Amino acid sequence: MASYSLSKGFCERANQVNSSDELGGVEPTLQLLSVKKIAGGNGLPDRHRAIISDGEQFLQSMLATSLNSMVEDGTLRKNAVFKLTKWESQNLKGQRILILFNIEPIDHPANKIGDPVNAGKAASAEEPMSGPAASSSRPPPSSTSHPVAPSAPSRPAATANKVPGAMERAAPVFPIEGLNPYHN
Hints:
With 184 residues, the chain is α/β, with parallel strands linked by helices. Helices cover 22% and strands 28% of the residues. It has six helices and six strands, in the order H-E-E-E-H-E-E-E-H-H-H-H. It has helices spanning 10-14, 68-72, 119-123, 130-137, 148-159, 166-170, and strands spanning 29-38, 47-53, 57-63, 81-92, 95-107, 117-118. The longest helix is centred in the last third of the chain and has 12 residues, at 148-159.
């Protein structure tokens, strides 16, 4: 089995700058954790949403339409390892994503490398060094409770006293994978 050396720390750095040029031409080796097709509509070409990982953290990204053929022919698929040579960062609906323009495929290992966490959430943590220690000292959640249900009723009460129009900016954005039709 081949060993891959991903560019650890890239997702954290990329989450703080606007383009590949700001990191001095660094060409990181990353892994593609998932890729999903998004229909273009109105004659526009289809796009692909991707999750990329440096082995420690992951980021949401969009592939440029020039990379569509690499997804369609299977070159870019789940767990693919690649070198990222050109990208830009954008804020989309309050979430930072990378737009990937140029990718050089390396290989396709069978499994995910490392145990990455969301770079966006890691960047918003109060103290990154206390994160793992704090999580290990927390009591395990009850098997009968659902984490989404208790927070849902408190949102309207918390936002009821705010200025009209402010709720739209402060409303949380949930990734589509986090939505479940079976939770109330």
